Amino acid sequence: MQIGVEDDLNSLTNEDAILKDYIDRDITSLCQQYRNKNPLNFNAIQGDNIKRGLRNADGTGVVVGVTSVCNVHGYVMDEGERSPVEGQLTYRGYDVSDIIASCIAENRYGFEEVVWLLLCGFLPTRDQLEEFNRLLAKARRLPENFVEDMIFKAPSPNIMNKLERAVLALYSFDCDPDNCSLENVMRQSIELIARMPMIMANAYQVKRRAYDGKSMYIHLPKEEYSTAQNILRTMRPDKSFTEEEAHLLDICLILHAEHGGGNNSTFATRVLSSSGTDTYSAIAAGIGALKGPRHGGANKKVMEQLAALKEAAPLGLDSEVETYIRKALEREAGDGSGLIYGMGHAVYTKSDPRAVILKRAAKKMVMGTALEPDFLLLDAIERLTPAIMAERGNPKPICANVDLYSGLVYEMLGFPEEVNTPLFAVARTAGWCAHRMEEIATCNRIIRPAYRPFRTQREYLPLDRRS
Question: What is the pTM of this model?
Answer without folding.
Answer: 0.90
